[in-house]
Amino acid sequence: MERIDCDRMFVAVMELGSFTKAAERIGTSSGQASKLISKLEQNLGVQLLKRTTRSLVPTDVGRAYYDGIKQILDNFDALDDSVRNSAQTPSGRLRVSVPVTFGISVLTPHFMQFAKSHPRISLDIKYEDRAVNIVDEGYDLALRVGLLNDSSLIARKLTDIRVMTVASPAYLERYGTPTQLSDLAEHHLVIDSNFRDPNHWTFNNEKGEIVYVRVDGRLRFSNATVCQQAAIDGLGITKLPSFVANEAIEAGLLSPILEDFEVAALGLFALYPPSKHLAQTSRAFIDFLVQQLRESRDW
Fold it and tell me: How much is the pLDDT for 296?
């Protein structure tokens, strides 16, 4: 337990007179509040509060400690706010891991614009699809399509990415156009193994309910652009994010199918370790991308 957490809890208990109310202010349980106070007393080697079934009464030492630590915490918070507010122009190094295809196809122009508008921030962008360990590998952020399994990270959604089911006109002419989800079992499928669950394709049925269709295919690739090329070459039906498929559809190389069964969108998330204060460089980067992606939905 951090010492400052114990001190903040003690101040809250002194000011509110109960573990329950203090816990509500801090955002924890009354049991955790009691543990923090006990830990503080253990570290100091003194009793700060006399506990009865009806009340909490500070000892003389407890009153003196409250007066001192309250001033220290107030000064600490004032200094913290002063430093943060003084840095109105974010500066420093920002190291970010981004997915390869979406990063190159959509995000890179926004990175360039961010670099122009934030000259005091040094960008270190890594294009990679693997699951990185943000803390151990020294990243400030990771941008990922779909949530990762690491529940210790904070995830902020930046935008939705539309996904489409497509095939080439030549393939559809030869094998027919599926009109029901069950028809997929009779077709050649090209699987993007980079999806979180490549063995299931997600759709919305006629009732608007999410359904998972188990899929298998002779061809599996870990890159959407390669899956697109396989579909263009008439090798099967595939699922592609719209930013990959749009140009080929406009050129007549691919045709969208099963449009009555809207494919569930994928979320683009910014992932970062939990912290009371997100670094200004990271916050500026995330806020910038949210705004840019909202304004430029041509993908």
Answer: 72
